[in-house]
UniProtKB/TrEMBL annotation:
Belongs to the glycosyl hydrolase 13 family. Keywords: Glycosidase, Hydrolase. GO terms for biological process: glycogen catabolic process. Residues 506-522 have a biased composition (Basic and acidic residues). This is Glycogen debranching protein. One of its GO terms (molecular function) is amylo-alpha-1,6-glucosidase activity.
Amino acid sequence: MTAWQELGTDTPREARAAARLNGSAPRPAPAPPWPGSWQPLGARFRTDGEGGRGTNFALWAPGAEAVDLCLFDESGRESRHRLTEQTYQTWHGYLPGVLPGARYGYRVHGRWDPWTGARYNPAKLLLDPYARAVDGGCTTHDAVSSAVRGWPERDVADTVRDDRDSAPYVPRAVVVDDADDWYDDQRPKTPWAETVLYELHVRGFTMRHPDVPPELRGTYAGLAHPAAIAHLTGLGVTAVELLPVHHHVSEDHLQERGLVNYWGYNTLGFFAPHAGYSSSGSRGQQVGEFKRMVRALHAAGIEVILDVVFNHTAEAGAMGPALSFRGIDNAGYYRLDRSRRGYADYTGCGNTLDTRRPQVIRLITDSLRYWVAEMGVDGFRFDLAAALARGSDAVEMEHPFLAAVSQDPVLSRVKLIAEPWDVGPGGYQVGGFPPLWGEWNDRYRDTVRDFWRGARPDVRELATRVAGSSDLYQRGGRRPYASVNYVTSHDGFTLRDLVSYDRKHNLANGEDNRDGTDDNRSWNHGAEGDTDDPAIRELRVRQLRNLLTTLLLSSGVPMLTAGDELGRTQRGNNNAYCQDNETGWLDWSLLDDPQWRSLTELTARLIRLRRAHPVLRQRAFFSGRPAGPDGPRDLSWLTPDGREMTEADWFAPTRALALRLSGSAMSERDQHGRPVHDADFLLLLNAGPEPRHFTLPGPHRPLVDTALAGPPEPAPVTGATLTGRSAMLLTA
C-alpha cells in the first residue's frame, strides 16, 4: 500500500487534502498547566512553594505557533496540555502531580514550508532534546517521517507533509528525579601524562564474561561488576573510553535487515543514558545505574571518558525520521544547504548540527556539563570534531563552540579529545586543534602499522611519531599528551585481524562488502584469516607483541582497544558497527589459551613499566640536547652498530633503529621544583625479516623481548641480536 493510499485516498492530490483533515488524535486538555519557569530547559521534577510535587517543562521552540505537552499513562493513553507561556522563545509550564517515571513528549505546531526550512508537523510526537531518560524504541514505519515517503514524485516528496500520527512508533521522554549528592564519589583526576586509555563498548565488554551474572551482562551494572573491573585494574589502564552511551536508535535500513546500530553513533538524546544498557529499567532507573557504574570505576581509580556524537543526530536527511530536532526547529538546529530544503552534510549521516547558533552551542555545553557535574564523568572524545568547528564552510579553530568550551569553568577542567576530522572539504585537522584538546592521532596509527608490515623505506616518520609527534602538537604550548596514540580502535580491524587479513570481510553487514575502509595497512603474513601453519601463527603473535610494545612505550597517551590484549578477532570484519553478537563481543574464553593469556600479561607488564618510570611518559617534548655540558642527550637515535644516527642515516633505507632515553637528562621537575631522575632505557626495533645484531652503549638488562612469550633473562648484556620482526626494551 502506498503512503497516500494509507491516508485513505487514491491519488497524491487527494492525499494533500486528506493530510490537512486527518487529525484523529485527541484535542489539547482545556485546563492549561501553571505558568512555571522558562529555565532550566527540559523536565525538572520539584516541590512547589506549598509543599506539592510536580514537574516543570520548558522547550526552546522559537518558530512554533503552539506547543502541546503530551503525557502518557501506564496504558499508553495520551493526554495533551497546551503550553500557553512563552519566554525568550521557550515554551513552558508546570504540571502538579507529574512525578518521576512519567512519560512525555511534545507536538509542535507551526508552518509547513520546507522551502524555508520550516518542517513543523503536530502529527509527530517529538522527544525533548533535554530528556534525562528515554523509554521505548523507534520502530520502522513511514509515519515516523514528517514527509510522505511513498510519494511518487520523489523529487518533491520531502515537501509533502505526512499527517499520520507517529506516536505508536517512537520513544517517550521520562521525568527523572535528579536528587543525588555524590558525597561518596572520589574522582581519580589522573594527569594526562599518566593516562592509559582503554576503548570499550558497555554491552560488548561483558556479554560473554563468565564471572558476570547473566542478568547483568551487557549493562552498566555489568561493567561495574568486580569481575569486569578486575580485568581493567589488572591491566593497569587509568581510563575507559566508552563508545556512545547517549540514547541512540537504529537506522531503518538496519532494522529492515534484522540488525541494529550496535556502536551507537546515531544519537537521539544527548542527556539520556542509553536505556538498552540498563539492567534495572528504562523509566529513569538507567540514570541511577549509570551513576553507580561511574562510582564503582572511580573507586577502582579508573576515569570515565564518553565518546559523544554532537556532529549529527538520528534524524538523517530530509526523508529521515522526525523524532525531535526537525519538528522543534529544523532551521534552528541543523545546517541547511543553499536551497533551505536540504541539509549540509559534513558527517556522511544526512545532517549536521549547526554549531554556529548559540542555542545549539548551549545544547551541547549543557549536555557536557550535565554529564560531568551530575553523572560524574571525567571527559569526552568528540566524534568527527571538525564538524563542530565549521564556520560558514571551513573549519575554524577560533570557532564559537571551541571558545565556549575553553572558557567554561567545568568543561575546561576535564579531558577533551577530538577525532580531528569530518567528511567535508578541508575536514582533516590532525594537529590543528587548540590547547586543552587531545587528538586521536591517525598518523601515528598508520606509521606504526606501515613500519611493522615493512611498507616504509626509512624510519624518519616512525621516529617522529614514537617521540610524541612534536611536528603536530608543539605549537601553541601543547604537550606530547595532546597525541592520543593508537594502532587500532573500534573503527577498523582488531589488532589480531590486522595481522591476519589483507582485506575486509564485511558481508555480514548486508552491504555487499562495500562498507568499511579499504585502507587497512594490514598484512596477513601469508594466509588470509585463521591458519594451521605454525610459522605464520608464531609470526602473527610476535607482531602483536611488537605493536603493543611500540604503542605503550611511545611518547603521548596510549589508547588500547578492548580485547586486543586477549587476541580478539572479528573474523576480518573491519566495520562491525551493526554486529551486536559474538562478532562484536569480547571472547573471554581466549584467556584459557596460554598464547593469548601471555599477550594480556605482556600488556599489563608494559603498562606497569610505563607507570613506574617517568622517562617513559614525559610531560614535555624531547629536545635532543644534553641537560648539561657533558651530559647525555635526553633522546638519542642510534644505528644498530651503536653510533648516533646522521642525516644520511635518516634518509637511508632501513628497517632497524634504536632509541635511547636518558633518565638523568629529563626536563621534568616534581611538585617541589626538584629535578626528576630515572633510569636509562633502550628500545630496539627490527622490522626486517632477518635477525639483526645491535651494539649497546654499555651493559643493559633486557626487560621485554617480543620474540619471547614471557619475560627475558634479566642478565646484563653488551649486545643484543633481535629475531626478525621483533623489538626489545632494555635498561642500564
